[in-house]
Amino acid sequence: MAPKTPPSLPLYEVKYRNNIISRGIELFILFLLFSLLAYRFFYLKYHGFQWLLALICESWFTFLWIIIVSTKWSQVEPKTYPQRLLERISAFPAVDMFVTTADPVLEPPLITVNTVLSLLAVDYPANKLACYVSDDGASIVTYYSLVEASKFAKHWVPFCKKYNIALRAPFRYFSGNSSSPPQDSSLEFQQEWKRMKDEYKQLCEKIEEASTQEPEACDFPGDFAVFSSIDPKNHPSIIKVIWENKESVDDGVPHLVYISREKRPQHPHHAKAGAMNVLIRVSGVMTNAPFMLNVDCDMYAHNPQVVLHAMCYFLGAKDEKDCAFVQFPQLFYDGLKEDPYGNQLKILHEYLGRGMSGIQGPFYQGSGCFHRRKVIYGLSPHDKITSGELQDEYLQKTYGKSQKLLASVAKTLSGGSNIIEQFNSVSVSSSVEIAHQVGSCGFEFGTGWGQKFGLLYGTPTEDILTGIYIHSRGWKSAYCLPDPPAFLGCAPSTGPTSMIQQKRWSTGLFEILFHSKSPIIGTLFGKLQLRQCMAYLHVLLWSMRSIFEVCYAILPAYCLITNSSLLPKINESSMLIPTSIFIIYNLYGLSEYVRANEPIEAWLNNQKMSRINAITAWLFGFGSATIKLLGLSETIFEVTKKDQDDTNSDFGRFTFDDSPIFVPGTTILLLNLSAMFIGLLDFKKENIEWGLGEVICTMWVVFIFWTFLKGLLAKGKYGIPTPTILKSGALALLIVHLFQIYQ
Ligand SMILES: O=c1ccn([C@@H]2O[C@H](COP(=O)(O)OP(=O)(O)O[C@H]3O[C@H](CO)[C@@H](O)[C@H](O)[C@H]3O)[C@@H](O)[C@H]2O)c(=O)[nH]1
Ligand SMILES: [Mn+2]
After folding, report:
1. What percentage of the chain carries pLDDT values higher than 90?
2. Could you tell me the residue range of the domain that residue 173 belongs to?
3. Phi-psi region at 279: left, alpha or beta (left = phi > 0; alpha = psi -120 to 50)
4. Is residue 432 a contact partner of residue 244, using CB atoms and an 8 Å limit?
5. Above 80 in pLDDT, residue 470?
6. Pick from 507, 462, 489: which is nearest to 661 by CA?
7. Which of 51, 66, 713, 738 has the highest count of CB atoms within 10 angstroms of its CB?
8. DSSP string, 284-337
9. How far is the CA of 70 from the centre of ligand 1 (A)?
């Protein structure tokens, strides 16, 4: 046995990065930006409208840069020591693990099954874990797959623990070329490995078969009857205990519960937030663990010690206020290193994520996050619960009418920091009836769910809003970066899905600004720190950015078309300001990738994609958020398609479809191309106002939209559909014409 570590050693440490040089460069860029603004301001009277617009856009970019400098100022290097925890602690707190899925087609059940298996097999006493799957698709295939998976789990979980398997999601473990077990392993292991691989193959086949057959044709006996001819948008709640760890053995398989909450057309279901609140309540009446883990159906546990890592924070924190939730960054598997869609967010986590963690803590990212139940129930740090607040009447009004739920809420609220005791001892299956009650859609009516506690409603980015509200009450959150990474999910791998996701995010984030729990209100009236508020604004303003980015991408073209200027001439000394901003900003951005061991292509692709996202998807986000805020329509949660198999050879090449989301990008590209053409025609004329600066800017825009340029010429899914090209062409011509009239 390893020697016991002295109890004085901490369970986690948070050091700060030495980033003096980066700070210096960031401040220097800020100085240059201010110089540019000053230059614009003093020369405003000699120039036309385009100069004013440039000043406005550049003021906005400067404002964003201030936010970035502030957010990146103190970046953390967190470290957790699960080994010390194991040596020191004998009784572990319970954890309820939630998995949400919504659509068996966009989210193939096999993916959900793998996530569930990886969670059931984590290194943690099985009798302290329970896994709850919420299925908003009310799909018989998903349910059937989970039933089959639970049978497989009885072999898989012991196998993983016995041989300390590093990767516990079977589709990853058995993927690639591993057709035979490692040769240097014991004979016994090799045999078991083969058996597991066979069993997993059978599981896949069963799920495959169930997915391809028409649901009616499936002849599922008894248990499956409730699913027959079900309408996923209109059905009573279905709750099934698939597996119960009845003897409460610590090396068995944790409980597995299937939940499809009640849905009625006349009741808003609040998408993922609604699903999460049902999970919280159902688990409240069943196991009522003091901690809750939540993952999306595609985010499997990549590191079997995830729960231990999270516990290092929860149990190691001197003051529980420092740790309302523990967030692991959202990372993705099978992503191309060059990140063609710019959606792997690695650099975002690497600098902004670590930077926020140096203020009040990371965002709640919706997946890969451990929460304290009492924080989700609305408590503030060091809240003293008065007995009045535990009276039935008060609780009923606030948390809903279920005696059993109220008892469990009361236990959680009054539990203080005693987190070992709260675990329910009642059997899980005896609570199914009450679970139906708390899973019904009328249950929340008139209560505080989604308004004052739980996951908050009112935006499709419920995660960020909920996190803001937690930080506004004075809690901090913790960022945990174990190696290997804790969770891996799948990032959208086609142009359209990526755009839809960006649009949904930017819409939802913008709506938060107008919510009663917005970060501005949180800072003015709550305990949200100013710099944390600024960091939140950085993402909440995504869709607003589109306006300025669109203007800025049009301005150089405007100059070429109307023979006007935006930048100093190449031989003027003031040209140094924009040139050095351009060069230093880009080199600095590149250095961030190099320091994070990312390839240069990833930097280039991310540069391009952040402009493309801003100009296309975020613009649509701005539109749909505005429509929603004007009360003209509701935003809907469009679920992202998860790809099971990313091995198709052309994965990574940008794809298009006939969505209008591709119109603005194509228009801007065509506009800049026409501007170059017009500029070429005018080139020899006298009195040319524009110079090399404007030409380079136009070329830069064309370069940013290179994928679109290729899309103009390509066919099939790699090409921009002809109607989109025609619409964009007409729009571009119209704009050129307008420019020429109003110059
Ligand atoms: O009505 C719904 C809609 C979605 N989901 C689930 O929500 C999760 C996230 O949906 P997804 O389509 O994968 O969205 P992403 O944009 O990939 O999700 C990110 O962004 C969301 C906020 O927009 C967060 O909720 C997620 O946790 C975060 O991973 C998935 O497990 C879905 O099954 C539901 O349970 N019910
Ligand atoms: Mn997702």
Report:
1. 80
2. 84-491
3. alpha
4. no
5. yes
6. 507
7. 51
8. HHHT--SEEEEEETT-EESSTTHHHHHHHHHHH-SSGGG-SEEE---EESS--T
9. 29
Residue appearing with tokens 């998807």: 617
CA distance 328 to 481: 6
| 54 plus 115 within the same structural domain | no
Give the up-direction half-sphere exposure of residue 471: CA atoms within 13 A in the CB hemisphere. Answer: 33
The per-residue pLDDT for 345 is 87
| pLDDT of the residue at 645 | 56
Complete DSSP assignment for 425-442? -S-SGGGHHHHHHHTSTT
Q: CA-CA distance, 166 to 304, in Å (whole number)?
A: 7
Same domain, 251 and 301: yes
Can you tell me the distance from the alpha carbon of 64 to that of 87, in angstroms, rounded to the nearest whole number? 46
What sign for the dihedral angle of Cα 694, 698, 699, 700? positive
**Does residue 689 lie within any of the structural domains?**
yes
* Residue 218 counted as domain residue: yes
Distance of CA 18 to the CA centre of its chain: 28
Ligand 2 centre to CA of 640 (Å) is 6
Whether residue 647 is predicted with pLDDT greater than 70 in this model: the reply is: no
Residue 393 has which token pair? 């009447």
User: Catalytic residue positions?
Assistant: 136, 463
Q: Does residue 484 have a cis peptide bond before it, meaning omega lies within 30 degrees of 0? A: yes
Q: What is the spatial distance between Cα 356 and Cα 519, in angstroms, rounded to a whole number?
A: 14
Query: ipTM > 0.90?
Result: yes
Looking at the chain, the whole-number percentage of residues with pLDDT higher than 70 is 95
Which range has the worst mean pLDDT, 205-214, 218-227, 428-437, 468-477? 218-227
- Mean pLDDT (whole number) for 138-157: 96
**Do both 90 and 68 map to the same domain?**
no
Give the annotated binding-site residues for UDP-alpha-D-glucose: 107, 136
492 lines ligand 1 (CB under 6 A): no
**Pocket of ligand 1, candidates 139, 270, 272: which has the most ligand atoms within 8 Å of its Cβ, to mutate?**
272
pLDDT band per the 50, 70, 90 thresholds, residue 90: confident
Mean residue pLDDT of the chain comes to 92
pLDDT band for position 650 (cuts 50, 70, 90): low
How many Cα atoms occupy the beta-carbon half-sphere of 264 within 13 Å?
8
Residue 649's contacts (CB-CB under 8 Å, 6 or more residues apart) are none
Q: Are residues 65 and 89 in the same domain?
A: no
Q: What is the pLDDT of residues 495-512, one digit of tens each?
A: 899 999 999 999 999 999
> 508 CB under 6 A from ligand 1?
yes
If one counts the domains in the chain, the total is 2
Query: Which residues are CB-neighbours of 575 under 8 A, at least 6 positions away?
Result: 567, 568, 569, 693
Looking at the structure, tell me whether residues 144 and 250 fall in a common domain: yes
pLDDT of residue 649: 45
Burial class (CB within 10 angstroms; exposed 0-12, middle 13-18, buried 19+) of 32: buried
Residue 322: how many CB atoms within 10 A of its CB?
Answer: 17
pLDDT digits (tens, 9 = 90+) for 251-303: 999 999 999 999 999 999 999 999 999 999 999 999 999 999 999 999 999 99
Q: Stretch 360-372: mean pLDDT, rounded?
A: 97
* DSSP-derived 3-state class of residue 234: strand
pLDDT (0 to 100) of residue 417? 64
Same domain, 56 and 88: no
Domain containing residue 484: CATH number? 3.90.550.10
Cα distances (Å, whole numbers) of residue 218 to 102, 145, 177, 231 = 21, 13, 34, 16
As a whole number of angstroms, the distance between CA 37 and CA 31 comes to 10
Which residues define the annotated binding site for Mn(2+)? 272, 296
Q: Are 643 and 481 in contact (CB under 8 A)?
A: no
Q: Tokens standing for 623?
A: 């539109």
Question: In the chain, how long is the greatest CA-to-CA distance?
Answer: 91
pLDDT, tens digit, 9 for 90 and up, residues 583-606 = 999 999 999 999 999 999 999 999
Q: What is the DSSP letter of 260?
A: E
